[in-house]
Design a protein that fits this description.
The complex is a heterodimer of chains A (66) and B (490). Chain A has 66 residues and is mostly helical. Chain A has four helices and two strands; from the N terminus they run ααββαα. In chain A, strand 1 and strand 2 form a beta hairpin. The chains are: A mainly alpha (66), B mainly alpha (490).
Chain lengths: 66, 490
């Protein structure tokens, strides 16, 4: 399995896998309930991860040169 | 006369002007009309793909779901983000295959991969059944938005008539080009409105986000977490995973994706699209503000939360603006859905049945189908009824039934035969229909299962039936082909 495929799994595992642990009432982070904050955090991390995937994926370079 | 009416009318004129402009100087053949000649760059594709989720459902339904049940509404933001990740790997091979073989629809893709016109027709029927409820939903939203923001001056039915006529006209005229141009206007407008409302309202009523959440937590603590049963964490995870896999098989999105000029366009978009889903956060904030500020909306009335709260807070001109933007969020997705249903019908039902001589006739058939589909949907909205509600519940689970044989068809050596694919889809669709109409599921069949299993998404059961039938029929039909047709193949 290539690194870009492994990286693609990370958002799934992080966002969904962490959900049972952050589903608690009462805690707030940056003004948001903990579970909502967790999801927002992973949305942003996902964008970062996909930027890395885009940068290291050789397919994107091939098309540029052609 | 109130000022909001003028603003609503101005938006309508603007949409029409953009659609006419978009069609200018283009030969509208089938490929131009339905996938924009496969020439769209990153920005248009971004707006089409992103725009398709930002519909009236998100605008009204997103805040409405927060108002009604709270945290479970987050699942939309989760599945969208993850669907974009999945698309990075899924879309490029699809795009290349479609480009090579001149395919413009999901049903065309099936017909070509499995070399079966009949399978293409089955997929087209499933696709249309899954699309029409979406058109209905948008029209219904349009009726609500216009009647509310015109302070009752225009009735919902009248608004839906006007909207249907406008959208039918511009889809027939400029196809996906029109949708792309209006999507540009729509997205700029909706972002401004949603971000403004999502920031202003919590500060206006509570002095900030955290005080707002704290106030909701004090009165309705269950609103801020996923419940222990029903829409629990288990429900969220299973629903998100299923939705992610089926997301791009929705015929409209599939078509929009084919409009890209290179696969790199989607890859690049997967970086920005997740960030774009954060717009939903502001919709959620509006929904939470409404929980305590406009109490007492029951059931489906929850969808009025955003509009009611706005009307009680702002001057008429601002309401007109919100209404105009709301109109756009209804009409732009409707145009893509109509275009999709028309293309599916013409390309994969009309063409194989009547075998017309020219491509031009197919394009005419697609355009003729548009008003028919539009006004049928309008009829459904006006008459309402249980059938409509059932169809809405089913639509996404229907599309999901295309997933197993679709993913198998992307494998280098596809183990599934056309009979396996067709019967698997049919079995899955039948299961979805049965479970929805008879209102049964895992919980009624096996009451002793653990709660986490009972809360799994109902589509999962249909999917399991689908996969079993697909695998069994494929094994069987492959054997009979090998036994009887050694000499014929080749």
């Amino acid at each position: 399995m290539k690194l870009i495929h492994v990286l693609g799994l990370v958002p799934f595992l992080g966002m969904l896998g962490g959900l049972p642990y952050v589903n608690k009432p009462g805690a707030f982070v940056l003004g948001m309930p903990l579970n909502l904050f967790w999801i927002v955090l992973w949305v942003i991390l996902t964008a970062v991860i996909m930027a890395i995937v885009y940068a290291i994926d050789p397919d994107n370079r091939e098309e540029e040169s052609s | 006369m109130n000022i909001s009416l003028y603003i609503l009318a101005a938006f309508l004129v603007l949409i029409l002007a953009l659609a006419v402009r978009a069609a200018k100087g283009k030969q509208m053949n089938m490929e131009q009309w339905s996938v924009g000649g496969r020439g769209f760059g990153a920005l248009f594709v971004f707006l089409l793909l992103a725009g398709e989720f930002f519909t009236t459902f998100t605008f009204l339904g997103g805040s409405g779901m927060i108002y009604q049940s709270g945290a479970p509404a987050y699942y939309v933001m989760m599945y969208l983000t993850l669907a974009y990740v999945f698309s990075y790997y899924l879309l490029p091979p699809i795009w290349r295959y479609a480009k090579k073989h001149g395919i413009i629809s999901i049903s065309g893709f099936f017909a070509h991969k499995y070399n079966s016109r009949l399978l293409g027709m089955l997929v087209a029927v499933v696709g249309i059944l899954g699309t029409v409820p979406n058109i209905v939903l948008q029209l219904k939203g349009l009726g609500i938005i216009v009647s509310q923001t015109s302070y009752g001056a225009i009735s919902p039915v009248m608004a839906m008539w006007i909207g249907t006529i406008v959208v039918t006209f511009y889809v027939m005229l400029s196809g996906l080009h029109g949708s792309a141009w209006t999507a540009v206007l729509k997205d700029i407008a909706i972002i401004s409105v949603v971000v403004f409302l999502g920031c202003y309202l919590p500060y206006h009523y509570y002095g900030g986000f955290q005080p707002m959440f704290a106030a909701v937590a004090a009165v309705k603590p269950a609103h801020l977490i996923f419940p222990d049963k029903g829409q629990s964490v288990s429900w969220v995870i299973s629903t998100v995973v299923l939705t992610v896999v089926a997301y791009y098989l929705q015929p409209g999105l599939f078509m929009s994706a084919l409009s890209a000029k290179s696969p790199k366009v989607f890859r690049k978009n997967t970086i920005y699209l997740p960030v774009y889903t954060l717009m939903l956060l502001f919709v959620y904030f509006v929904g939470y503000t409404a929980v305590l500020q406009v109490p007492g909306l029951q059931g489906a009335e929850g969808d009025l939360a955003l509009l009611k709260l706005s009307i009680q807070t702002f001057e008429p001109w601002m309401i007109g603006l919100i209404g105009g933007v709301g109109t756009l969020t209804a009409l732009v997705p409707t145009s893509v859905f109509l275009l999709t249903a028309g293309t599916l019908f013409a390309q994969d039902i009309y063409q194989p049945l009547f075998k017309p001589a020219s491509e031009r006739t197919v394009a005419t058939a697609a355009k003729t189908a548009i008003p028919f589909i539009a006004f049928t949907s309008l009829y459904f909205v006006i008459t309402g009824g249980d059938a409509l509600y059932m169809l809405l519940l089913m639509s996404y689970n229907l599309i999901m039934q295309l997933v197993p044989s679709f993913l198998c068809s992307l494998l280098p050596k596809n183990p599934v035969t056309k009979y396996g694919a067709g019967l698997g889809i049919a079995a899955g669709v039948a299961t979805v229909a049965y479970m929805t109409i008879a209102k049964t599921g895992l919980a009624t069949w096996f009451p002793l299962l653990p709660q986490a299993v009972k809360d799994l998404n109902a589509g999962l059961v249909a999917l399991a039936v689908n996969i079993i039938v697909m695998a069994a029929v494929s094994v069987f039909s492959k054997q009979s082909v090998q036994e009887s047709g050694r000499g014929e193949v080749g």
